């Protein structure tokens, strides 16, 4: 469970969200929606403690992410960013193994248990066959799955993803979201991802979090559908 | 992968040892390998030959080993930190910064009428090089946080280097003949001018820099995925950046201080290591780059002695083709 406690975020003098309190429950998949520049990435980065919070607290299972050690944080929240990772000579297995960093020793030595966790993570995202392949010759969808497997190897209760379906074609988008849905429901992860894809958000997610600056509206998907917030914010049906 | 490494590392180490011994035989007078061995092991050998091997050539060969490992390790760190396959201490102006520090010290101190003992001069040269290298590295690090385009960073590094070159020339123009002479000799970039007493300073400091490089293996691996990913996987970014800064300044600064600016080793050798070992993992790449750096530097030293040319002309001629290959291939390597 990840909770926002009275948080305010902004760029310089610009307020994106102000005094927001919200709670993302264990075992739920939440889509974070909002117009361009509304602060979806900023909010996700703040939740991963990559960005600054102007005021308020963000807690994972009751512990403040700001005061955690880097390793504790890496065991609490995993983040899949929009950064492209295409490195020559780096295999998918290597990338997923890096997710074990918060658990390994000073040189990153992999124990038997670490190797098993990496293999499981690859299996869960359906990429076991790609373990020895390098990412520079893979499709965007395949790379996204590898980055998700890396997040799984971190064994965190919370996984955040910034636009995981951007650049993917329609079937692949649904596959990735079905994967996220499964991870939330079967493994009890708290998953929050930002997207511009309303259809996917509405059909696959348990909750919708909508940034309506300076507020964040978090509701179960059905309730959000009936509320009319989405039509109002995105100018649909007028 | 493990099997590949278990063949390649011993093979390269053997090559390094052979080149090291061969390096001791080459010079103004050729000394046979048997005499070199005798001189090293305290066996039966001509006294004059023993003195040449132990007092002159050994110092030089050890310097080549240290310089090769140090420049390659600092180049690898910079390439990963800046996620830029063309980064290196020379290209990004860090070596130039060290040059400026040394120039200010060697040319500036006499202007103010400061006389110096050799010991003072040695420590002052090293300190000036560290400060110069450190300041430029800080500038490049600060710039790279604002500017994400790797080509822009590279061009800025080259501009910084050129600007420093100009300042150094002005200093030369203003300087007295004797100060100028000691500086010009320094800029020739020579492994040979280093004395045994200087080596007593260079060796431990280089070793400290190399030890820090090994401590940085895990952070560098995480940084392969970029700073954001690295931080969410538990990297203490402030601490890692500080360590990379200290290590690179010590390694590139110390070698530049005593050997003069040696180009392209730091840039080219990590690529050589990547090609040979087909790996991006720093657990392999860090020792591999150091070992390859030792081999390349010894080879350059042997060639430079055989042709009696400054060693940095040889490193440039050997390094530039690799750099061109990397640019032409135009693939993301880091």
Describe the structure.
The complex is a heterodimer of chains A (about 240) and B (about 325). By secondary structure, chain A is of the alpha/beta class. Chain A has 2 domains: about 1-75 and about 155-240, P-loop containing nucleotide triphosphate hydrolases (Rossmann fold); about 80-155, no CATH class. Chain A is built from 9 helices and 10 strands. Chain A has helices at about 40-45, 70-75, 90-100, 110-125, 140-155, 170-185, 200-205, 220-225, 230-235; strands at about 1-10, 15-25, 30-35, 55-60, 65, 75-80, 160, 190-195, 205-210, 215-220. In chain A, the strands form 2 sheets. In chain A, strands 6-7-8-3-9-10 form a 6-stranded mixed sheet, sandwiched between helices. A 4-stranded antiparallel sheet of chain A has the order 2-1-4-5, covered by helices on one side. In chain A, helix 3 packs parallel to helix 5 (about 140-155) and helix 4 crosses helix 5 (about 140-155). Chain B has one domain (about 60-330): ABC transporter involved in vitamin B12 uptake, BtuC (Orthogonal Bundle). Chain B contains 14 helices and no strands. In chain B, helix 4 packs parallel to helix 6 (about 150-175). The radius of gyration of chain B is 20 Å and the shape is globular. Classes of the chains: A alpha/beta (about 240), B mainly alpha (about 325). The interface between A and B is medium-sized, with 32 and 27 residues.
| Number of self-contained structural domains of chain A | 2
Oligomer: heterodimer
**Whole-number mean pLDDT of chain B:** 88
The termini of chain A sit apart by 37 Å
Portion in helices of chain A:
25-40%
CATH structural class of chain B = Mainly Alpha
DSSP E strands of chain B, number: 0
Largest sheet features of chain A: 6 strands, mixed
Radius of gyration of chain B: 20 Å
Beta-strand proportion of chain A:
15-25%
The total domain count of chain B is 1
Extract low-pLDDT stretches of chain B: none
Q: Going across the major beta sheet of chain A, what is the strand order?
A: 6-7-8-3-9-10
